[in-house]
């Protein structure tokens, strides 16, 4: 069962707000860079960069990061196939930069831990901050987002999906209930026969 | 890429060992090459190291001398944080008469996850898969296969020249004794390349035609046709076998010269190393910008990282 949390317009508005908050948070755009995490974070970071560029008439540095090789769970996860790594491209020197990591959903925090380790292999940033569209809770590591689009309390067997049109065909945020654990049918008004 | 993602793609890499490219499908080979692209990028970082294999112990079991391949494997393993032990037959228990089987079972008893093996006898890597449970990677077995060399050649052609489908590749030199050629022909055919073999008749068995390749004894013909020319090392130690009259004569017939580069400007030159300057090619040719020999070496580390990553991951539940 797929429930929509944000419509395409909602998501677009959220991204715009996050872009504004990023500027507010970092102030000095000269040493500022956005780094999107593969896969969806890349497109979200790109849109944030476009917003900031059109608002402030300045170029925003943009990187793409894949953390597969830095994961601590790539061999123990329950998924049958080995995660397929994607492109990493950091076309600037990270040293002394203020980095805003952009990811779609913040869950256990393990992706972000891997991302911090991966970023350090490129140099030593002045700071690394985290922006995420959805924070769904259930953290397993001491990781907290600095800028969040939406906080959603979830059950562990639910999935939160941020869709972007470049990958999924359309924008939106959804929650997918895998098992029908929650059954409200008895509370629903019965249809008159 | 959150941990909740559970994306399933249709293709799954299911190999446990890399014995030869004969056992790999075109999809398997393409998967290794596409993963290698990501590792190639890691090599350019200021800290070219990932924690990916930090829970793995790998033994490099070299019964035959090798500098390049062993260094390349060891570097790939260290770049991925694996624990590495090296074994070379010249300074080991083999000298005391221990059999291959006993050596390997002893090593396995030390809790080894992966074995990279080079041996002068064809079939040794395959044999090891029956003795022990570790992932086995063939780093060259006799004149049989040398799959990681072929993978790195394929990767280099793709990266520096273009897609392999329809690519015209000429392989020149001592075809008979080369395991690199065997693996390369298998891999290139699977990815749809056209192959022309060229060399002295004594080193170019006609039977290879059964592998779906063309054969010529005329160097000029090969150079005029090819987009990629792969020159093979003449194994000086085999020269006594009388396969060709002298190194100088070989060079005159099959050595690539600056004149060739000028006359046929369309091909890119590769060589698996080590080069005999003045035999397979003139020294100036080896140094010219028409060669991608050093790229092959760098790419070799990335390709071996991809192989290690995929095999280590494949062994999980």
Notes on the structure:
The complex is a heterodimer of chains A (193) and B (317). Chain A has 4 helices and 8 strands, in the order βαβαββαβββαβ. Chain A is an alpha/beta fold. In chain A, the strands form 2 sheets. A 5-stranded parallel β-sheet of chain A has the order 3-2-4-5-6. A 3-stranded antiparallel β-sheet of chain A has the order 1-8-7. In chain A, α3 links the parallel β4 and β5. Chain A is globular, with a radius of gyration of 18 Å. Chain B folds into 2 domains: 142 residues, Rossmann fold (3-Layer(aba) Sandwich); 130 residues, Rossmann fold (3-Layer(aba) Sandwich). Chain B is α/β, with parallel strands linked by helices. Chain B is globular, with a radius of gyration of 20 Å. Chain B has 11 helices and 9 strands. In chain B, α1 crosses α5 and α5 packs across α11. The interface between A and B is large, with 43 and 31 residues.
Taking strands numbered 1, 2, ... along the chain, how are they ordered across the largest sheet of chain B? 7-6-5-8-9
Question: What characteristic shape of chain A results from the CA principal axes?
Answer: globular
Backbone structural class of chain A? alpha/beta
* SS strand fraction of chain B: 5-15%
What is the distance, rounded to the nearest whole angstrom, between the alpha carbons of the first and last residues of chain B?
22 Å
Series of H and E elements of chain A: EHEHEEHEEEHE
Trace the largest sheet of chain A across and list its strands: 3-2-4-5-6
Distance between the termini of chain A: 26 Å
CATH architecture of the largest domain in chain B, by name, is: 3-Layer(aba) Sandwich
* Helix fraction of chain A by DSSP (H/I, runs of at least 4): 25-40%
Secondary structure: helix percent of chain B: 25-40%
CATH architecture of chain A: 3-Layer(aba) Sandwich
């Amino acid at each position: 069962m797929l429930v929509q949390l944000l419509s395409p317009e909602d998501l677009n508005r959220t991204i715009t707000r996050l872009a504004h908050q990023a500027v507010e948070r970092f102030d000095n755009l000269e040493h500022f860079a956005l780094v999107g995490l593969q896969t969806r974070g890349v497109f979200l970071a790109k849109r944030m960069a476009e917003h900031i560029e059109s608002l402030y008439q300045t170029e925003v540095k943009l990187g793409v990061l894949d953390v597969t090789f830095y994961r601590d769970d790539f061999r123990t996860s329950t998924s049958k196939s080995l995660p397929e790594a994607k492109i990493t491209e950091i076309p600037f020197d990270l040293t002394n930069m203020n980095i805003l990591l952009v990811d779609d959903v913040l869950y256990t925090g393990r992706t972000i831990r891997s991302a911090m380790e991966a970023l350090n292999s490129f140099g030593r940033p002045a700071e690394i901050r985290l922006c995420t569209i959805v924070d769904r809770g259930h953290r397993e590591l001491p990781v907290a987002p600095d800028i969040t689009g939406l906080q959603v309390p979830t059950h562990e067997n639910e999935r939160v999906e941020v869709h972007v049109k470049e990958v999924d065909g359309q924008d939106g945020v959804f929650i997918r209930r895998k098992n029908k654990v929650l059954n409200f049918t008895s509370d629903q008004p019965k249809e008159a026969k | 890429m959150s941990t909740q993602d559970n994306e399933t793609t249709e293709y799954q890499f299911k190999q446990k060992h890399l014995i030869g490219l004969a056992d790999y499908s075109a999809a398997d080979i393409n998967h290794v090459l596409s993963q290698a692209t990501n590792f190639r990028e890691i090599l350019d970082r200021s800290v070219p190291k990932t924690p990916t294999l930090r829970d793995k112990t790998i033994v490099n079991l070299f019964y035959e001398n090798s500098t390049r391949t062993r260094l390349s494997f060891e570097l790939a393993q260290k770049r991925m944080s694996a624990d590495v032990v090296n074994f070379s037959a010249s300074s080991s228990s083999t000298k005391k008469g221990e059999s291959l089987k006993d050596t390997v079972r002893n090593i396995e008893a030390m809790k080894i996850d992966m074995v990279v093996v080079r041996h002068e006898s064809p079939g040794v890597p395959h044999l090891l898969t029956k003795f022990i449970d570790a992932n086995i990677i063939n780093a060259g077995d006799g004149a049989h296969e040398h799959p990681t060399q072929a993978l790195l050649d394929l990767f280099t052609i793709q990266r520096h020249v273009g897609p392999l489908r329809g690519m015209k590749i000429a392989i020149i030199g001592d075809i008979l004794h080369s395991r690199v050629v065997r693996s390369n022909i298998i891999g290139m055919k699977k990815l749809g390349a056209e192959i022309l073999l060229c060399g002295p008749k004594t080193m170019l068995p006609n039977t290879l035609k059964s592998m779906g390749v063309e054969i010529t004894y005329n160097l000029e013909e090969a150079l005029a046709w090819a987009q990629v020319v792969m020159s093979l090392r003449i194994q000086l130690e085999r020269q006594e076998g009388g396969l060709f009259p002298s190194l100088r004569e070989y060079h005159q017939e099959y050595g690539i010269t600056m004149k060739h580069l000028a006359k046929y400007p369309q091909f890119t030159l590769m060589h698996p190393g080590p080069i005999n300057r003045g035999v397979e090619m003139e020294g100036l040719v080896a140094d010219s910008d028409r060669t991608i020999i050093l790229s092959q070496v760098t790419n070799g580390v990335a390709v071996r990282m991809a192989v290690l990553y995929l095999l280590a991951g494949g062994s999980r539940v």
